Amino acid sequence: MKAWEANIRKVIPYVPGEQPKDADIIKLNTNENPYPPAPGVAEAIRKLAGQPQVLRKYPDPSADVLVSAIARYYHLQKEQVFVGVGSDDVLAMCFLTFFNSGKPILFPDITYSFYDVWADLFRIPYECRPLDAQFRIVKEDYYKENGGVIFPNPNAPTGELLPLSQVEDIIAHNPQVIVIVDEAYIDFGGTTALPLIEKYDNLLVVQTFSKSRSLAGMRIGYAMGNPALIQYLNDVKYSFNSYTMNQAALAAGAAAVEDDAYFQMTRERIIRTRERVKGELSGLGFEFGDSKSNFLFVTHESCPAEELFQALKKAKIYVRYFKKPRIDNYLRITIGTDQEMDALLDFLRSYLVS
Ligand code: PMP
């Protein structure tokens, strides 16, 4: 080992789902939205492309056009909204800003696999609280002394939704620390904890444009909370990189949030497809919880998940498989278009009988 190696910040990085180059792959592995973004998004980007003089300049560091659009949509003050480069960036900033007590932060044992990576990166101690046998969060597990709490709702990769009353119980039991509810998938059937930010000054609700607003490629995420928390987040952001959001993302995000009719139509379409696919998968011998997200977390009565994952991949249908304790016999399948899901179901029908 070289002498300088001893002082390097060594981390085991998060591994995102595969982004294959091949266009004919049915891609159900990273919970992207199968529908394009609202038509106004392309229009906004075209407009920007027609004004190259604008690109010469730095973007607005306060991201005002996007922050204002989000604030208007949710009836908030601008001071209650923080934006970043996807909710990954927002969540990383939250870990850096709020989890500094030296006490372990708490999150579920089966959850978004970036949480432990940020905790390790920022040297934040953490404890994982086990989900119950049905993969549900046990709220009482979060009532002990801790350095902060974070969980997704619905949880990922399980898709399980914690009822809002239980989310509130967790927040109410943790007045000494910041509680972050990661609502990446809330628009697919959950009830947001957002109204609770008026009641609890230690709550942050984090959402994203990557799923329900079809803009994973633009990288836009946001946090909503009381102005003091948002100010602390901005202080850290401005100490790290003032211009996190580029001009195209700002324009695209503002256009997306302004088209509510399109948003409602596409999210309802995904919910409809999800419920139909649940019925079909049951008939094929799959078991799963009552996902309220844009994916299903399934296990088969006889076919091992890893085998099925490989067989699907060979057939150019990509889903997600996590070789991890408790979930290594499950597949996470993103809800695509009806046509994509029919191709998946056709494959499963023939594979599972042969
Ligand atoms: N939270 C959860 C629970 C997720 O599954 C994801 C998607 N990988 C994210 C946050 C981050 O999404 P993005 O950075 O695209 O907003």
Search tags:
354 residues; four-stranded antiparallel β-sheet; five-stranded mixed β-sheet; binds 4'-deoxy-4'-aminopyridoxal-5'-phosphate; alpha/beta
What's the layout of helices and strands?
Layout: E1 26-27, H1 39-49, H2 52-55, H3 64-74, E2 81-84, H4 86-98, E3 105-108, H5 115-121, E4 126-129, E5 149-152, H6 164-172, E6 179-182, E7 203-208, E8 221-225, H7 227-238, H8 247-258, H9 260-283, E9 286-288, E10 295-300, H10 305-314, E11 317-318, E12 320-321, E13 331-334, H11 338-353
Parallel strand pairs: 1-11, 3-4, 5-6, 6-7
Antiparallel strand pairs: 2-8, 7-8, 9-10, 10-13, 12-13
The structure holds 4'-deoxy-4'-aminopyridoxal-5'-phosphate.
Residues 86-88, 112, 152, 156, 182, 184, 208, 210, 216, 221 line the site of 4'-deoxy-4'-aminopyridoxal-5'-phosphate (PMP).
